[in-house]
């Protein structure tokens, strides 16, 4: 397809994670194991929370939605990456690339806002139970859920709008195993300095501010629980520890990828693999393993199905 004197790019060639056949086989096995073992676990979490009336608290409502969000996020890149391991030429059309990029940031930003909502719920839970029930009513929970989805959509649509305004006339080789903003911008046939700054402020700065805000919030929560009983203090510290682990696992790679001025680093692909493929599958599992109520309900549910 032609536009003026330049050829418009209609597809991108993905260079993949690595050119080493042994390394590709190792990654293929690793990702396959995660999909076959942990992905069903995420759906089991959702089923457990939905089927047990005792898990009706806001924490479990958000945990079930987090498992759904992470399961959806894991479908954006990994299935195509597994197929591409067996392809000589890894080609993705321009429209599919933009679609992948949109959902990547839509669900990624949604999860980032989800963690903010969860720390808010945890803070409210420090008040008396009646106060927590009034503030975090079902209507409020659904309103917060809608707000984080809208926030993710707004963030993603800005990313896509900036990309769509860029001209692409070649080359068309993306030095990655999926489409993301830093690699796509490098292929534009124009000066992208302003776009780089907009992307860093939209993704990198937003991620960094949320990360610092979450750490500050958990510091406030830990200071507040000092006066609680030993059992309440121990439970609050355990929950905060779990959340802080998740925050570091999610925001660390994201800050590494999106706050740098879009220069290539040797570890970029490894960090992206962990951030895009591995972490979303582990996230709800980490929450569940630290939650006795969900584990007990899950064992009960599995035992019922085994007996049947």
TrEMBL record:
Membrane spanning stretches: 25-47, 59-79, 91-120, 140-164, 205-225, 237-258, 270-289
Signal peptide feature range: none
Gene Ontology cellular component annotations, sorted alphabetically: plasma membrane
Subcellular location: Membrane
Tree of life domain: Eukaryota
Molecular function GO labels: G protein-coupled receptor activity; olfactory receptor activity
Membrane topology annotation: Multi-pass membrane protein
Domain G-protein coupled receptors family 1 profile: start-end pairs: 41-287
Pfam families: 7tm_4
Keywords, alphabetical: G-protein coupled receptor, Membrane, Olfaction, Receptor, Sensory transduction, Transducer, Transmembrane, Transmembrane helix
Primary subcellular site in the record, as a coarse category: membrane
Name the record gives this protein: Olfactory receptor 4N5
Species of provenance: Sciurus carolinensis (Eastern gray squirrel)
């Amino acid at each position: 397809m032609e536009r003026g004197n330049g050829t418009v790019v209609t597809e991108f060639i993905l260079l993949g994670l690595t050119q080493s056949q042994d390394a590709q086989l190792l990654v293929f096995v690793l990702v396959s194991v995660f999909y076959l073992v942990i992905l069903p676990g995420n759906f089991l979490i959702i089923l457990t929370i939905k089927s047990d009336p005792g898990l009706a608290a806001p924490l479990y409502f958000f945990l079930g939605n987090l498992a759904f969000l992470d399961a959806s996020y894991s479908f954006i890149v990994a299935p195509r990456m597994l197929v591409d391991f067996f392809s000589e030429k890894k080609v993705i059309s321009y429209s599919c690339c933009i679609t992948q990029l949109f959902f990547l940031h839509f669900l990624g930003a949604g999860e980032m806002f989800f963690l903010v909502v969860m720390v808010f719920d945890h803070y409210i839970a420090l008040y008396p139970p009646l106060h927590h029930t009034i503030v975090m009513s079902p209507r409020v929970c659904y309103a917060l859920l809608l707000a984080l989805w809208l926030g993710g959509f707004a963030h993603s649509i800005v990313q896509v709008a900036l990309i769509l305004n860029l001209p692409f006339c070649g080359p068309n080789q993306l030095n990655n195993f999926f489409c993301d903003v830093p690699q796509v911008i490098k292929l534009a046939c124009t000066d992208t300095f302003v776009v780089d700054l907009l992307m860093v402020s939209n993704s990198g700065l937003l991620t960094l501010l949320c990360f610092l805000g979450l750490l500050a919030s958990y510091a406030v929560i830990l200071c507040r629980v000092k006066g609680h009983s030993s059992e309440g203090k121990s439970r609050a510290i355990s929950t905060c520890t779990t959340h802080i682990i998740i925050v570091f696992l999610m925001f660390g790679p994201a800050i590494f990828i999106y706050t740098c001025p879009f220069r290539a680093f040797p570890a970029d692909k490894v960090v992206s693999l962990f951030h895009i493929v591995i972490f979303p599958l582990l996230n709800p599992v980490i929450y569940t393993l630290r939650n006795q109520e969900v584990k007990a309900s899950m064992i009960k549910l599995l035992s019922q199905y085994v007996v049947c």
